[in-house]
C-alpha cells in the first residue's frame, strides 16, 4: 500500500498535511465540549448562578461544535480531492505501464484483470485514502486524547472502558482474520466476471447463431453465484460489527452510570456534585473512545480489500516490460526499407516447442516478399517479430542494417505501416481512423487521407456515407463490414507513407476484383517501399519478388511463384488446391 504513495504529487501531499492539521484542530474542539458540559453541570447545580454565566458557557460549547463541524466539512473536501487526484495519477501510471507492456506481459495478467486493476482496484484504494485521511488520523488522536482526559477520574470507570475497548479490538481482529483471505478471492472473481462478460459481448453473434444464450447464462451464473456468495459472507461478517459495537457502547454507558450511581450514593454531600459532573464528563469521553474505535473498525473493514487491490496494482506497476527499449532513434546506415532475418528461431515464453526454426532471408527496398503456409505454420508470429511484439529467441532481425532490439521502439514503429490480421477500428470518424497515431513526420493532411482511402479502394463506400470522411466509426468498427474495415486499416498504413509495409493476411475479406485492383494500386504506390505480405490466397502473391513457404515453423521453400511451383511440394499442394494448372501457369 505505502509504495503507491510515491504517485502522490506535491499538491496532494500539501492537502494531506492540511487535513492532518485540521483533524487535530477538530479533535481539540471535540475534546473541549465535555469540559463545557461539566461547567454547565456545575452552574446548573450551584445556587446563585446567573443566567448570563450559563449562556456564556452554552455559547462557547455551541461555537466549538460549529467549529468542529466546519473543520470536518473542509477536511472532507480536501481528503476527497487528495484521494481523487491520487487515483488519477495512479490510473495514468497503470495505463502507461500497460501501454509499455509486450503481448506476453499482457497475457500474463489477462485483459479483464488489467481492466479491473485500472478501475475497481484503484477505486478501492481511493475510498480508503478518502476515509483514511479523516478517520484513520482522527480515531487514534481522539482515543489517546480522551484516555488522557479520563485517566485520573476514576479507576472503576477506566477499567470498564478498558474492557469495552478490549472486546471491540477482539471483534475487529476476528473480522479481519475472517474476511481478508476472501477479499483476495473476490478481486479474482471480479476478473472472472469481467472476462465472461467481455467474451460474451465480443462473440455475441456466434452465441446467438448457435443458440448458446442458455449455455452462456449458465456459465455466467456459476461465476456470479460464486462472487455473490463470497460477497454475502463478507457483508454478513461486517454487518455483525455494527450491533456488537453499539451493544458495547450502550453497555459501557449503562455500566458507567450504574457504577457512578453507587459512588454518588456512598459519597458525602460535598462530593456528590463533583462526582456527578465527573460521571457526565467521563461518560462523554468514554463515548469518544468507543466512537474512535468504531471509526477505526470502519477503516479495518475497508483496509483488507484496499490492501488486496493495492497489491494487485503494485504487481502491474512493478512489472518490467519484457521488450526493452533500445537507444537508436535515427538512421545510422544508408539502407532504407531493408529487412534481414539471420537464423531466427522463436518460441513463446511459456512454450516448450519452437514456433519458428532457423529462418533466414533478406527483403530489399522496393521488393515484395510474401509468406505463405498452412494454418499454424508461424506466418503471423514471424512478422510480429519485426515490430517487436515479441523478441526472437535466437538469431537476429535487422531493419536497415540495425538490430531491431537496438532501436527505440517509437522510431522503429515509425518505419512501419502495419495492417493486422484482424482490422482494428477506433471510435471516431473515418479521418480519425486513417490518420491515427504519430508517424514522426508532419501531420497527415486531408489530401493524404483521401489519397490513401482511394488507393485502398475504400473511396466508394466512404463517399456514400452521409458525412463522408467525418462519418462516425463505432468502436471496433461494428457499423462497418469486414471488407470495409480491412480497407480502412490498409488506408491507415498507406497514409503513414512508411519505409516498410506489413500486411498480415489483410486482403482475406476482400472480393477477388477488389483484391486485384487494390494490389495493382499498391504496387504502383509502394514501389519504393518494402512490402511483407502474409497471405492465404495464391492469387494475392503471384507477382511477389520472393515467396517464403513455411511448414511447421520451418522454411521449406523460397523463390518466385514459378520457381516454387516447380520445386516446392508444399507450395504446389497449396497452389493446386486453389487454382487450376492453367491459371497458375498463366498467372
What this model shows, in words?
The chain has 587 residues and is α/β, with parallel strands linked by helices. Helix content is 64%, strand content 10%. The chain has 20 helices and 12 strands. Helix 5 runs antiparallel to helix 8, helix 13 packs across helix 15 and helix 18 crosses helix 19.
Given as residue ranges, the uncertain stretches (5+ residues, pLDDT < 50) are none
Count of distinct strands: 12
Question: How does the overall form come out from the CA principal axes?
Answer: elongated
H/I helix tally: 20
**Percent in helix:** 55-70%
Q: DSSP strand (E) fraction?
A: 5-15%
* Assembly category: single chain
Q: Structural class of the secondary elements? A: alpha/beta
Quick take:
By secondary structure, the chain is an alpha/beta fold. The chain contains 20 helices and 12 strands. The two termini are 66 Å apart.
Describe how the helices and strands are arranged.
Elements lengths: L9 H36 L5 H50 L2 H7 L1 H40 L4 H48 L1 H6 L3 H27 L1 H26 L2 H49 L21 E8 L9 E8 L4 E6 L5 H6 L9 E6 L2 E2 L5 H6 L1 E4 L8 E2 H5 L11 H10 L3 H6 L7 E2 L8 H15 L3 E5 L7 H14 L4 E5 L3 H4 L4 E6 L2 E6 L1 H7 L1 H10 L2 H6 L1
Parallel strand pairs: 3-10, 3-11, 6-9, 9-10
Antiparallel strand pairs: 1-2, 1-4, 4-5, 7-8, 11-12
Helix pairs in contact: 1-2, 1-4, 1-9, 2-4, 4-5, 4-9, 5-7, 5-8, 5-9, 8-9, 13-15, 18-19
What are the salient characteristics of this protein?
four-stranded antiparallel β-sheet; 587 residues; 10% strand; alpha/beta; six-stranded mixed β-sheet; 12 strands; 20 helices; single chain; elongated; 64% helix
Amino acid at each position: 500500500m505505502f509504495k503507491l504513495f510515491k504517485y502522490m504529487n506535491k499538491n496532494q501531499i500539501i492537502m494531506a498535511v492540511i487535513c492532518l492539521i485540521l483533524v487535530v484542530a477538530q479533535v481539540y474542539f471535540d475534546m473541549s465540549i465535555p469540559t463545557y458540559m461539566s461547567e454547565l453541570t456545575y452552574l446548573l447545580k450551584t445556587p446563585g448562578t446567573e443566567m448570563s454565566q450559563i449562556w456564556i458557557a452554552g455559547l462557547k460549547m455551541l461555537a466549538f461544535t460549529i467549529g468542529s463541524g466546519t473543520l470536518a466539512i473542509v477536511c472532507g473536501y480536501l481528503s476527497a480531492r487528495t484521494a481523487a487526484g491520487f487515483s488519477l495519477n495512479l490510473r495514468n501510471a497503470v495505463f502507461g505501464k500497460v501501454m509499455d507492456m509486450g503481448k506476453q506481459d499482457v497475457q500474463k495478467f489477462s485483459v479483464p484483470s488489467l481492466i479491473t486493476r485500472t478501475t475497481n482496484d484503484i477505486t478501492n484504494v481511493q475510498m480508503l485514502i478518502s476515509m483514511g485521511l479523516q478517520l484513520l488520523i482522527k480515531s487514534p488522536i481522539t482515543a489517546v486524547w480522551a484516555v488522557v482526559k479520563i485517566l485520573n477520574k476514576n479507576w472503576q470507570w477506566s477499567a470498564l472502558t478498558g474492557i469495552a475497548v478490549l472486546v471491540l479490538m477482539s471483534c475487529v481482529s476476528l473480522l479481519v482474520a475472517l474476511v481478508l483471505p476472501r477479499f483476495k478471492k473476490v478481486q479474482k472473481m471480479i476478473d472472472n466476471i469481467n472476462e465472461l462478460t467481455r467474451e460474451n459481448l465480443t462473440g455475441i453473434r456466434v452465441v446467438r447463431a448457435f443458440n448458446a444464450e442458455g449455455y452462456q447464462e449458465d456459465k455466467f451464473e456459476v461465476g456470479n453465484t460464486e462472487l455473490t456468495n463470497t460477497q454475502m459472507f463478507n457483508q454478513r461478517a461486517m454487518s455483525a460489527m455494527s450491533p456488537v459495537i453499539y451493544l458495547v457502547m450502550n453497555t459501557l454507558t449503562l455500566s458507567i452510570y450504574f457504577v457512578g450511581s453507587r459512588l454518588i450514593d456512598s459519597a458525602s454531600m460535598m462530593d456528590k456534585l463533583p462526582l456527578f459532573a465527573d460521571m457526565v464528563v467521563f461518560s462523554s469521553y468514554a463515548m469518544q473512545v468507543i466512537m474512535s474505535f468504531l471509526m477505526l473498525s470502519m477503516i479495518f473493514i475497508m483496509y483488507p480489500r484496499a490492501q488486496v487491490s493495492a497489491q494487485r496494482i503494485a504487481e502491474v506497476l512493478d512489472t518490467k516490460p519484457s521488450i526493452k527499449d533500445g537507444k537508436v532513434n535515427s538512421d545510422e546506415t544508408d539502407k532504407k526499407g531493408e529487412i534481414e532475418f539471420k537464423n531466427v528461431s522463436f518460441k513463446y515464453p511459456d512454450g516448450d516447442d519452437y514456433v519458428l526454426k532457423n529462418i533466414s532471408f533478406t527483403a530489399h527496398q522496393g521488393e515484395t516478399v510474401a509468406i505463405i503456409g498452412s494454418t499454424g505454420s508461424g506466418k503471423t508470429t514471424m512478422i510480429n517479430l519485426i515490430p517487436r511484439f515479441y523478441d526472437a529467441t535466437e538469431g537476429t532481425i535487422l531493419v536497415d542494417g540495425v538490430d531491431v532490439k537496438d532501436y527505440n521502439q517509437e522510431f522503429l514503429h515509425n518505419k512501419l505501416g502495419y495492417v493486422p490480421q484482424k482490422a482494428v477500428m477506433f471510435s471516431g470518424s473515418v479521418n480519425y481512423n486513417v490518420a491515427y497515431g504519430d508517424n514522426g513526420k508532419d501531420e497527415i493532411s486531408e489530401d493524404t487521407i483521401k489519397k490513401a482511402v482511394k488507393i485502398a479502394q475504400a473511396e466508394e463506400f466512404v463517399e456514400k456515407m452521409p458525412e463522408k470522411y467525418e462519418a462516425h466509426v463505432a468502436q471496433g468498427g461494428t457499423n462497418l463490414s469486414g471488407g470495409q474495415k480491412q480497407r480502412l486499416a490498409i488506408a491507415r498504413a498507406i497514409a503513414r507513407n512508411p519505409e516498410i509495409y506489413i500486411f498480415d493476411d489483410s486482403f482475406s475479406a476482400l472480393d477477388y476484383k477488389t483484391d486485384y485492383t487494390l494490389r495493382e494500386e499498391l504496387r504502383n504506390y509502394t514501389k519504393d517501399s518494402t512490402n511483407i505480405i502474409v497471405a492465404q490466397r495464391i492469387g494475392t502473391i503471384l507477382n511477389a519478388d520472393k515467396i517464403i513457404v513455411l511448414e511447421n515453423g520451418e522454411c521449406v521453400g523460397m523463390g518466385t511463384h514459378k520457381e516454387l511451383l516447380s520445386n516446392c511440394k508444399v507450395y504446389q499442394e497449396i497452389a493446386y488446391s486453389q487454382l487450376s494448372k492453367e491459371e497458375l501457369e498463366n498467372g
